[in-house]
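Structure in, sequence out. Go:
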């Protein structure tokens, strides 16, 4: 194909748009942006609002986004109390296009006819349709290891009936009916070990279905994108090579150890059965660290939950750690280095100028890597950078955990905690005995990639403690978004809990952009 042509993209189960963002932001060596999102489908109200706002942003050429967009992100007086719909109304032409692109709906049999109509409207008649790409992954909570343990323990029958097991069939139906030239399917690594009620491996059946979608005559060739445990064999051959589909994000320039299944499928009838990948994701010897991703963002403090909150009360309580018996205990019981790190941190504890942060915090961000990807000089600060509130007793736990990580270079387990700092949970003794969930408080180490940002970050932040002990807090939405590689001008709509959930469920856009490069080069070589 002529690589100057526009390549349409349909994004289903889109979440806040990580995969779509990566494709749409991919820039060719000729300076063009070949991939165009034609339709994004997402059922969640707040993720859809995020998609809608980003779709509006994409209606403008780079560098020509109106000031009103940035004023809305900053929450300036003109836009206070208003939703992104007000922004769309202010620009009717672009607003109409955004509304046509970002559709709030759950894919299911009862809406199949409308889904097909919208796809045909977006792509045009089949006989004249250009090469195009389908991206997305069905909701994956039921496939995750943690999700399976929890759901099987609560109600095994309900687990096997959970509709999230079969939503991938909606993906298959689109492959069968619309035959995209290329598809990208993403899911959790736990899918490899998932089994049906009869004991059959779920992944084995999914692969067969992807290679030849039910009720269709066409076939797909499936490719691995990462040179990992599968060795040099890029083309899927049998279930014994299933692990080759696992993409370890930290090996490819992403600042987190996120391991996900990503499958690239190429339609044989479009490109022939000699299809090969032009390249795979590049391995990078120097890993991008958590510090690289977020250290330039403004210092903020947490709030105090369930009690009166003020900067002075917060500061006083954090500094009171020096007077606690547990502090004297660790100083004399093999943790003198941790105690010294705490002393140094407490000397640096101040009330940050930015307080707890806000919807928008004015600053001049200077990311430690890929600054051209993240930074937008028209924005003038950091969005979604507001810290949650923490229980006062958790503040000292956060102080201990982050100080421990700063000197030991690993996050402590509960067994490493002084007894006085152990959480008052009914299963703590079991955790200490068995080791299960023994890492319920986890610091993200400054000098390493972060651990996987998941939707759990919306709950309590205990797994996502900031590495700076003097800030004594969990990560903000913007920090999580940086680790997920969302650009700074990507705004997350909804309550803060929902913003966290969206970020945790997303595909890193920077990784998606590298996948887009592979697809683009494949189109340029006609996959031969």
């Amino acid at each position: 194909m002529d690589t100057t042509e526009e390549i349409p993209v349909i994004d289903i189960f889109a979440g806040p748009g990580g995969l779509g963002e990566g494709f749409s932001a991919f820039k060719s060596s000729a300076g063009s942006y070949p991939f165009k999102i034609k339709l994004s489908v997402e059922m969640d109200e707040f993720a859809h609002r995020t998609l809608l706002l980003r779709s509006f942003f994409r209606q403008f050429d780079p560098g020509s986004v109106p000031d009103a967009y940035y004023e809305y992100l900053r929450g300036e007086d003109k836009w206070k109390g208003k939703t992104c719909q007000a922004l769309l109304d202010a620009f009717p032409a672009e607003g109409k296009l955004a509304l046509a692109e970002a559709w709030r709906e759950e894919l299911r049999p009862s809406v199949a006819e409308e889904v097909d109509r919208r796809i045909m409207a977006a792509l045009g008649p089949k006989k004249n349709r250009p090469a195009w790409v389908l991206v997305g992954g069905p909701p994956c909570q039921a496939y995750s290891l943690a999700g399976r343990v929890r759901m099987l323990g609560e109600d095994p029958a309900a687990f096997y009936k959970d509709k999230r097991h079969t939503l991938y069939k909606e993906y298959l139906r689109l492959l069968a009916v619309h035959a995209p030239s290329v598809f990208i399917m993403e899911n959790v690594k736990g899918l490899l070990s998932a089994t049906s009620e009869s004991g059959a491996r779920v992944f084995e059946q999914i692969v067969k279905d992807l290679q030849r979608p039910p009720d269709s005559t066409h076939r797909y060739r499936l490719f691995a994108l990462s040179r990992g445990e599968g060795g040099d064999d890029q083309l899927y051959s049998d279930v014994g090579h299933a692990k080759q589909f696992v993409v370890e994000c930290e090996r490819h320039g992403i600042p987190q150890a996120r391991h996900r299944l990503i499958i690239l499928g190429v339609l044989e009838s479009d490109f022939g059965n000699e299809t090969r990948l032009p390249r795979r994701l590049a391995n990078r010897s120097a890993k991008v660290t958590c510090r690289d991703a977020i250290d330039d963002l403004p210092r903020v403090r947490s709030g105090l939950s369930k009690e009166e909150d003020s900067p002075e009360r917060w500061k006083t309580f954090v500094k009171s750690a020096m007077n606690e018996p547990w502090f004297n205990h660790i100083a004399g019981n093999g943790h003198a280095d941790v105690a010294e790190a705490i002393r140094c941190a407490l000397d640096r504890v101040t009330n940050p100028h930015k307080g707890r942060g806000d919807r928008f915090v004015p600053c001049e961000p200077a990311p430690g890597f890929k600054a051209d990807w993240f930074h937008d000089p028209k924005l003038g600060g950091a969005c979604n950078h507001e810290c949650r509130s923490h229980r006062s007793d958790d503040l000292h736990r956060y102080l201990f955990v982050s100080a421990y990580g700063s000197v030991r270079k690993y996050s402590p387990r509960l067994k490493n905690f002084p007894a006085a700092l152990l959480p008052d949970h009914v299963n703590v003794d079991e955790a200490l005995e068995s080791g299960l969930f023994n890492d319920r408080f986890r610091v993200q180490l400054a000098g390493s990639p972060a651990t996987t940002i998941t939707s759990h970050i919306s709950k309590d932040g205990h797994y996502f403690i900031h590495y700076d002990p003097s800030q004594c807090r969990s990560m903000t939405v913007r920090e999580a978004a940086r680790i997920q590689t969302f650009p700074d001008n990507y705004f997350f709509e909804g309550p803060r809990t929902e913003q966290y959930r969206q970020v945790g469920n997303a595909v890193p856009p920077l990784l998606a952009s590298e996948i887009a490069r592979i697809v683009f080069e494949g189109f340029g070589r006609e996959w031969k």
